[in-house]
């Protein structure tokens, strides 16, 4: 079975030394509750729960999977008991509003816990995962009656939530949905339709499941402008607020998936189910984006957790596995062969994992600060600034971290060699679980269009300038620092090039709208690499200043990882820049018929 220890030392470096989280928390309303002692206790207890409770269920849950009997889904053995411990420990309510029974702590703390959960049992983590987003959507857009009926239960974790968007004939293009909502008695609606790929749509972990469902009213406009949002519980709350009558929503089947076998991915049938409108009619997509953006950050954290899990186990294996001798001579003369960690190519793969784990953690915790300010900060310039950065970085967190997450877990299998292909070691499960993260909550292509098309070009580049100005100020302030020259000079050039590439795509797009789609994925990956370069430069600054103190080995390793990133991973930006500039010509030159193979298919 794979092992795991939460990377608390690295978390504390990023939180306390890089981003000064203690001062950040103190600046938030009621931030005194997130004192250093409280934060430390939460991280340590979360690490214990993830390691001791969730990790032992990961492989067994993958092997056992979920079982559908008589419309009821049973999660793998141990999942329900683990969920009860999770609820009893108060984890679901960590960052929720105290008015709904939450603890009122900053969202960033919940995001750190999420990394640990994703690293130890991604499938289990998806059962409570969407509940937070469902609660946020109801908190922002629900009526007072809906909040009273559902929010406290979701916050406490005794009920879970889902997000029901996709249908058999449509995924991202939600304007094509066929699920219908017809007015019924009072303020209720009758919901009829089928949704697919619904994570945790049916299970036995919680006493009720609250579905947030996109549907169309009878007089709805065509397309995405005619989508409304409805809350549809599995059991209708009774007068006491407890689960009452069974609603007309059932699980028709379970998907047979490549990975995350321990989580129930359901086909959900709504047969005249009773639902209630959330938000204004025909504005459901805007309401659902509250939940979708939270889910996108959550999926990015899934990528990070899987990178960390793969790296830790790859490192352990590489230190123990004996294979050949080092090129420069015997490194372990007392043994029949040297451990494979002495070989440069194994180190290349390990350092790739390490750089993406540490860089991804910096990106998540940097973004988490923005989320804290948006959710808890006072209205004003600081919150507006944070909201702009959060909007810009969300698609990068989601897509970039899942892309490099899949790469990193693949490298883990490669480090293990033939053993990586064998189930008992657990490395192939990480690859299978990581593969879906590039797809759900918006594929990499969709996130890239959101970044380049909506966030950057639709704002005339202003959202990007907010971030590139920050990078420029850092580079200018450190221009004469000899310890940072190797980082600041290339970062400054890339930061300028980022703006030039953006302007180039924008100019081309004025003549041909296909240019945006042609450039978008390379643009997102380029953006991700430059963003991590900025964060590694900041990490290098902190590590350089700390080399003379205690824990020298940690800071020296941090500097070396930053150098590896700049020398071996950041050059990928050159290829992405060239592909961005190549334009749409070769992509769009052929008709769909010209893609033929010389025979009918």
List the helices and strands and how they pair.
Layout: H1 8-18, H2 21-27, H3 36-54, H4 58-64, E1 67-69, E2 72-74, H5 79-88, H6 107-120, H7 122-141, H8 144-156, E3 159-164, E4 180-183, E5 188-199, E6 208-215, E7 228-233, E8 235-237, E9 243-246, E10 249-254, E11 265-278, H9 284-320, H10 344-376, H11 381-416, H12 427-437, H13 444-457, H14 462-477, H15 485-511, H16 514-545, H17 552-569, H18 572-582, H19 585-588
Parallel strand pairs: 3-6
Antiparallel strand pairs: 1-2, 4-5, 5-11, 6-7, 7-11, 8-9, 10-11
Helix pairs in contact: 1-10, 3-6, 6-7, 6-9, 6-10, 7-8, 7-9, 9-10, 9-11, 9-12, 10-11, 10-16, 10-17, 11-12, 11-13, 11-14, 11-16, 13-16, 14-15, 15-16, 16-17, 16-18
3D structure, described in words:
- The strands form three sheets. Strands 3, 4, 5, 6, 7, 10 and 11 form a seven-stranded mixed sheet that branches. The protein has a two-stranded antiparallel ribbon with strand order 1-2.
- It has helices spanning 8-18, 21-27, 36-54, 58-64, 79-88, 107-120, 122-141, 144-156, 284-320, 344-376, 381-416, 427-437, 444-457, 462-477, 485-511, 514-545, 552-569, 572-582, 585-588, and strands spanning 67-69, 72-74, 159-164, 180-183, 188-199, 208-215, 228-233, 235-237, 243-246, 249-254, 265-278.
- It is globular and about 80 Å long.
- Helix 10 (344-376) packs across helix 17.
- It is an alpha+beta fold and 601 residues long.
- It contains 19 helices and eleven strands.
């Amino acid at each position: 079975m794979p092992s795991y220890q939460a990377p608390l030392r690295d978390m504390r470096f990023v939180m306390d030394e890089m981003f000064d989280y203690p001062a950040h928390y103190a600046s938030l309303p009621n931030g005194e509750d997130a004192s250093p002692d409280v934060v430390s206790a939460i991280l340590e207890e979360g690490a214990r729960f993830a390691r001791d409770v969730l990790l032992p269920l990961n492989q067994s849950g993958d092997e056992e999977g979920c079982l559908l009997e008589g419309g009821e889904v049973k999660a793998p053995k141990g999942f329900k008991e683990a969920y009860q411990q999770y609820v009893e420990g108060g984890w679901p309510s960590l960052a929720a509003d105290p008015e709904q029974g939450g603890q009122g702590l900053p969202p960033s703390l919940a995001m750190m816990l999420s990394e640990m959960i994703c690293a130890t049992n991604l499938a289990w983590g998806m059962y409570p995962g969407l509940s937070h987003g469902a609660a946020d959507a109801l908190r922002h857009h629900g009526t007072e009656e809906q909040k009273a009926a559902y929010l406290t239960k979701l916050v406490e974790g005794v009920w879970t939530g889902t997000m029901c968007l996709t249908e058999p004939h449509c995924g991202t293009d939600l304007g094509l949905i066929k699920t219908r909502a017809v007015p019924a008695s009072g303020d209720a609606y009758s919901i009829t339709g089928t949704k697919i790929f619904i994570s945790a749509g049916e299970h036995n972990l919680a006493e009720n499941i609250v579905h947030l469902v996109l549907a169309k009213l009878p007089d709805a406009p065509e397309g995405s402008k005619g989508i409304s949002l409805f809350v549809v519980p599995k059991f209708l709350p009774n007068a006491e607020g407890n689960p009452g009558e069974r609603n007309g929503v059932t699980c028709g089947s379970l998907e047979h998936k490549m990975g995350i076998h321990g989580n129930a991915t359901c086909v959900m049938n709504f047969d005249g189910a009773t639902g209630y409108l959330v938000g204004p009619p025909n504005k459901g997509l805007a309401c659902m984006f509250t939940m979708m953006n939270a889910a996108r950050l959550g999926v990015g954290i899934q990528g990070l957790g899987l990178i960390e899990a793969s790296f830790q186990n790859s490192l352990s294996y590489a230190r123990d596995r004996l294979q050949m001798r080092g090129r420069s001579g015997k490194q372990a003369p007392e043994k029949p062969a040297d451990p494979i960690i002495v070989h440069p190519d194994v180190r290349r793969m390990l350092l790739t994992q390490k750089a993406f784990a540490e860089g991804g953690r910096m990106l998540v915790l940097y973004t988490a600060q923005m989320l804290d300010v948006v959710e808890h900060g006072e209205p004003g310039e600081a919150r507006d600034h944070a909201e702009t950065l959060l909007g810009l970085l969300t698609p990068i967190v989601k897509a970039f971290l899942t892309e490099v997450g899949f790469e990193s877990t693949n490298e883990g299998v490669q480090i293990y060699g033939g053993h990586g292909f064998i189930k008992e070691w657990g490395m192939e499960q990480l690859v299978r679980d990581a593969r879906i993260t590039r797809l759900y909550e918006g594929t990499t292509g969709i996130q890239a269009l959101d970044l380049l098309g909506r966030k950057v070009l639709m704002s005339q580049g202003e959202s990007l300038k907010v971030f590139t100005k920050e990078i420029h100020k850092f580079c200018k302030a450190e221009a004469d620092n000899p310890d940072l020259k190797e980082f600041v000079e290339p970062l400054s050039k890339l930061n300028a090039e980022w703006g030039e590439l953006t302007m180039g795509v924008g100019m081309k797009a004025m003549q041909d709208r296909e240019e945006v789609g042609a450039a978008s994925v390379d643009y997102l990956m380029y953006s991700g690499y430059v963003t991590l370069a900025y964060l590694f430069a900041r990490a290098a600054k902190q590590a350089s200043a700390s080399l003379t103190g205690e824990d020298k080995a940690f800071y020296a390793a941090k500097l070396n990882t930053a150098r590896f990133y700049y020398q071996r991973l950041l050059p990928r930006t050159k290829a992405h820049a060239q592909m961005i500039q190549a334009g749409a010509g070769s992509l769009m030159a052929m008709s769909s018929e010209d893609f033929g193979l010389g025979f009918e298919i």
